[in-house]
From TrEMBL:
GO terms for molecular function: 3-phosphoshikimate 1-carboxyvinyltransferase activity. Catalyzes the transfer of the enolpyruvyl moiety of phosphoenolpyruvate (PEP) to the 5-hydroxyl of shikimate-3-phosphate (S3P) to produce enolpyruvyl shikimate-3-phosphate and inorganic phosphate. Keywords: Amino-acid biosynthesis, Aromatic amino acid biosynthesis, Cytoplasm, Transferase. Its main location: cytoplasm. Pfam families: EPSP_synthase (PF00275). One of its GO terms (biological process) is amino acid biosynthetic process. It comes from the Bacteria. 3-phosphoshikimate binds at K22, S23, R27, S162, S163, Q164, S191, E306, H333. SUPFAM superfamilies: EPT/RTPC-like. It comes from Tessaracoccus oleiagri. Its EC number is 2.5.1.19. This is 3-phosphoshikimate 1-carboxyvinyltransferase.
Length: 416
């Protein structure tokens, strides 16, 4: 269904309380499921991806009580086989749950949305096979048959298509006899902060988990301690609201910004400053104002590729050219985001060159458009940003924002 996007000729002004991090919520759930007792999670994201994770864990025998208001109680149990798990389009479900099947007492089947079968899985499934599991395909849908004898040891995988392969294996490592060493054998490795998020959150739960060198991670065998934890706001989603002030003018604040974080979304503040925005942080509140003029930059988003759609929207209205590089692997995200962004920028009359590892965008004045969304929440964010300055724009589907932020339409209308 086509949905109109707000136009903000007077700029945007407001304070946005951003929901919890998808990446932290789904890690906290998996770690709690492996814990040595019940864990409480506060500030948890309520969205399609977290609901899919909760359903997956329940299907494996884990108790999850939703107390409302972002509070969850997770009660671990023996991991049971026999279930079919719906991964939707959630990378964190399709890459973090199959390793739990190593611990199950029977095969576990994994299915997903139509486009989920296009998302890379081979590196992870290769790792599971090296640990003795049977896996009957290299993409969704597939069935994981646990090994007769659970074992840990060393696995070497190509994680260049997604950092989530390394994270998924590390998440289960403490429960494997002898622990687990994961080596990355491919060329490049995206989203390293997300691997640091995995090891840091494991360490918070008493697990000895660390990076040995830039291609090798190690998790020792041991208990995953139950923990009462607080999920940070999702800083990649926060960047969409901050970026609204950069695109339309005005000032936007986001409270609850953590002083230190492993979320790569935090890198948005540096990108925005480089593009000429004024960014202030005081008492955990980040405020962004556009400054004199937005200017194009050359930026490598390898560590924070989730930010590409937002940075592409800024580039579309900036003075001069912007080169986004280092994000070739986002062709395997919810959609081929490089191709999708090139198509939608062209639709809005913005000059763009699609490159193997990114985009070269020449800023201009976006024309009103009906933007395609490709079932991709971040393509809606991109379109919504352009809609602020291209009066009368719309998107072909708004529903897909439920993947990480079901409240996006309300939060956005309140701002614009
Ligand atoms: O581990 C995680 O929570 C994530 C890792 C990244 O995946 P890739 O390494 O596939 O980019 C990121 O883009 C995704 O949104 C979330
Ligand atoms: C790539 C993303 O998600 P996923 O966790 O499904 O990989 C994303 O949210 O930008």
């Amino acid at each position: 269904m086509i949905v109109s996007l707000p136009h903000a000729p007077e700029g945007v002004h407001g304070r946005v309380v951003v929901p919890g991090s998808k990446s932290e919520t789904n890690r906290a759930l998996v770690m709690a499921a492996l814990g040595d007792g019940p864990s409480h999670i506060s500030g948890a994201l309520a969205s399609r991806d977290s609901a899919l994770m909760i359903d997956a864990l329940r299907a494996l025998g884990v108790g999850v009580d939703d107390l409302g208001g972002g509070r969850l109680i997770v009660t671990p149990g023996p991991v049971t086989g026999g279930a079919t798990i719906d991964c939707g389009l959630a990378g964190t479900v399709m890459r973090f749950v199959p390793p739990l099947a190593l611990l199950a007492d029977g095969p576990v089947r994994f299915v997903g949305d139509p486009h989920a079968s296009e998302r890379p899985m081979a590196g992870l499934l290769d790792g599971l096979r090296q640990l003795g599991a049977g896996v009957d395909a290299d993409r969704l849908p597939f069935t994981v048959t646990p090994p007769e004898q659970l074992r840990g040891g060393d696995v070497t995988i190509d994680s260049s298509a997604s950092s989530q392969f390394v994270s998924g294996l590390l998440l289960v490592g403490a429960r494997l006899p002898g622990g687990l060493t994961v080596r990355h054998a491919g060329d490049t490795l995206p989203s390293r902060p997300h691997i640091a998020m995995t090891t840091t959150m494991l360490a918070d739960r008493g697990v000895r988990a660390r990076e040995l060198d830039e291609r090798t991670w190690r998790v020792d065998e041991g208990p995953v301690r139950a923990l009462d934890s607080q999920v940070e706001p999702d800083l990649t989603n926060a960047s969409v609201f901050l970026a609204a002030a950069a695109v339309a003018g005005g000032r936007v604040s986001v409270p609850g910004w953590p002083a230190t974080t492993t979320q790569p979304g935090a890198l948005f503040l540096d990108v925005a400053r480089r593009m000429g925005c004024e960014v202030e942080t005081a008492d955990g509140v980040v405020t962004l104002g556009r400054g004199e003029a937005l200017r194009g930059i050359d930026v490598d988003l390898h560590a924070a590729s989730e930010l590409t759609p937002v940075v592409a929207a800024l580039a579309a209205v900036a003075e001069g050219g912007t080169t986004i590089r280092g994000v070739g692997h986002i062709r395997g995200h919810e959609t081929d985001r490089i191709a999708a962004l090139a198509t939608e920028l062209t639709r809005a009359g913005i000059a763009v060159e699609e490159r193997p590892d990114g985009l070269r965008i020449t800023g201009g004045t976006p024309s009103p458009s009906v933007f395609e969304t490709y079932a991709d929440h971040r393509m809606v964010h991109f379109a919504a940003l352009l809609g602020l300055v291209a009066a009368g724009s719309s998107v072909t589907d708004m529903e897909c924002v439920s993947k990480t932020m079901p409240d996006f339409p309300d939060l956005w209308s309140a701002l614009a």
